[in-house]
């Protein structure tokens, strides 16, 4: 497998054997905003193995075919350049129970917290997100709307929450982004 940038520079070369059990992320980093094409050429596909090309950002899934060109765009949304944006999977993820949703880890401090949580994530969506705070049993005790700053940071007040162990989950409105982490309230 071979991909290249708009000016013909190679992004990756992969000659591994792929079959119906394959799960291959295609990593592309540090591309500037713009329109690109991904060329899948010289694939030796066994007709008995149905493979899918998945774009986790747009939530599109297409049967993988030999000598195919996929058009995509990188924009100011950091999710559009996510490390796991593109994937080749040997099974239809929706039918096999796999999620197309990438779950990102959160850096949470101070932990334990008293008055507020600072949250940082390496990949974050633009605009408003839903923040869910769940207790140890999984019950949502708070749901708020907020947004990340330009450095991927978010601050959440927790001064009125009882001491205990909690999880925090962050989602955007179109469900293309989910991040979660565990924290302790003193």
What would your notes on this structure say?
- This protein is mostly beta strands.
- It folds into 2 domains: 2-89, no CATH class; 103-185, Immunoglobulin-like, CATH 2.60.40.
- It is built from no helices and 16 strands.
- The chain has strands spanning 2-4, 10-13, 23-26, 34-40, 52-55, 60-63, 68-74, 86-89, 103-105, 107-109, 116-120, 128-134, 140-147, 153-157, 164-172, 178-185.
- Strands 9-16-15-12-13 form a 5-stranded mixed β-sheet, with no helix packed on it. The protein has a 4-stranded antiparallel β-sheet with strand order 3-8-5-6, with no helix packed on it.
- A hairpin with a 4-residue loop joins strand 5 and strand 6.
- Mean pLDDT is 76; it is low at 93-102.
Oligomeric organization of the protein chains: single chain
Count of the separate structural domains: 2
Query: If you average the pLDDT, what whole number results?
Result: 76
**Approximately what portion of the residues adopt beta-strand conformation?**
over 45%
User: Which percent bin holds the helix content?
Assistant: under 10%
Query: What low-confidence regions span 5 or more consecutive residues with pLDDT below 50?
Result: 93-102
C-alpha Rg, in Å? 20 Å
Question: Overall 3D geometry?
Answer: elongated
